[in-house]
Design a protein that fits this description.
This protein has 9 helices and 17 strands. The chain is an alpha/beta fold. The strands form 2 sheets. The chain has a 15-stranded mixed β-sheet. A two-stranded parallel sheet has the order 9-11. The longest helix has 16 residues. The radius of gyration is 24 Å and the shape is elongated. The model has no long low-confidence stretch (mean pLDDT 86). This is F-box domain-containing protein.
Length: 341
């Protein structure tokens, strides 16, 4: 009895024990297997990168063993080449060389550079529809986003351009839905609009002096990380006063790194602050933002320790408690929506 002759419920149960690579290849064998793989709803994350001419698409499934990778980097002689294959997806086909690494159960499908458009279009769409990843991350320049991913929905967009005009960023964000995290570590030129989509990102990580205090006053997201800014102690004071008066209703965390020296003594006398009270909140803040990936782990231990060098402030309008810390060039701000997480 062939496996596809079993009831679909039985097939789905057996598929749960296969690796993500096995599930992918099996889905190509017949419509029945495609539907069965799609039905089991595997928890998965998809990353697509195009950096320095190399292209990579990586699918990771925590609930299934191993990961599946497509890339344009050709295998070395020491790599174990399993087979050369032609993958057929609908009416399209793509040639690959498959290698397998035992250490991390990774199957890599090496493609030719001329097939990059198929990888970005055909393969991406196939995997997206088959596994329905909960988290899609794009790491690339805006020209590649514009070329391949218009009208898509992703969780993270990491803009790899060294310099880009803000109008172009706005245009991309009007065509691509970014549900969670926007990263722009290059220089952004131009002026942000009042209703800029950049200000409405749930998680925003930018770098450079182009991000001004006036623009931060318009930020409406949950988490922000601003690197290498020119913020001053006065700017920090204006931010804290705005928050105390009801601004930033969605804000949970804010981290600012400035090229200027910041002085706590010029901020704290103007606010009613309190030291940490263990009966009011936990000592360590639970930093849930995806931007945790961009903070040094050892540094993070200090950042989230709000025990003895932080200042607590309470907003009278809603009783919300927040802690801020100021070092010589860093400002940390955490809102305690859950005081004992």
């Amino acid at each position: 009895m062939e496996i596809d002759q079993f009831p679909i419920e039985v097939v789905c149960y057996m598929l749960k024990y296969l690796s993500v690579s096995d599930l992918f290849f099996l889905s190509l064998s017949s419509d029945n297997f495609y539907n069965a793989v799609k039905k089991i709803k595997v928890n998965s994350y998809l990353t697509v990168s195009k950096i320095n001419g190399e292209c990579l698409l990586k699918l990771i499934c925590p609930d299934a063993a191993g990961c599946l990778v497509f890339n344009t980097h050709q295998p070395e002689h020491r790599d174990l080449i399993m087979r050369r294959s032609i993958l057929r997806m609908g009416n399209e086909k793509i040639k690959v060389k498959a290698t397998y690494f035992i250490d991390n159960c990774q199957t890599t499908l090496h493609i030719r550079e001329k097939d990059i458009p198929k990888m970005m279009g055909l393969v991406f769409n196939y995997i997206n529809e088959l596994f329905n990843p909960t988290d899609i991350c794009l790491n690339m320049k805006l020209k590649n986003v514009e070329k391949y991913f218009q009208d898509n929905t992703v969780y993270t967009l990491n803009i790899m351009d060294k310099s880009v005009d803000v109008k172009r960023v706005e245009k991309v964000l009007s065509e691509l839905t970014v549900e969670g995290h926007l990263i722009a570590l290059g220089k952004i030129t131009g002026k942000l609009k009042t209703n800029s989509k950049i200000n409405s990102m749930n998680q925003l990580h930018v770098r450079g002096k182009w991000m001004t205090p006036a623009q931060i006053l318009k930020f409406d997201g949950e988490h922000a990380l601003f690197d290498n800014t020119l913020f001053t102690t006065k700017d920090i004071g204006l931010f804290l006063n705005a928050w105390m008066n009801g601004a930033y209703p969605n804000l949970e965390t804010l981290i600012i790194n400035s090229k200027n020296t910041l002085y706590p003594s010029e901020v704290t006398p103007k606010l009613v602050t309190k030291p940490w009270d263990p009966k009011q909140r936990s000592r360590h803040y639970k930093y849930r933002s995806r931007m945790i990936e961009h903070i040094n782990r050892l540094h993070l231990a200090y950042v989230c320790d709000c025990g003895h060098d932080g200042f607590d402030i309470e907003r009278k309008s809603d009783g919300l408690l927040a802690t801020f810390k100021i070092s010589w060039n860093h400002f940390f701000f955490f809102v305690w929506n859950d005081r004992f997480s």
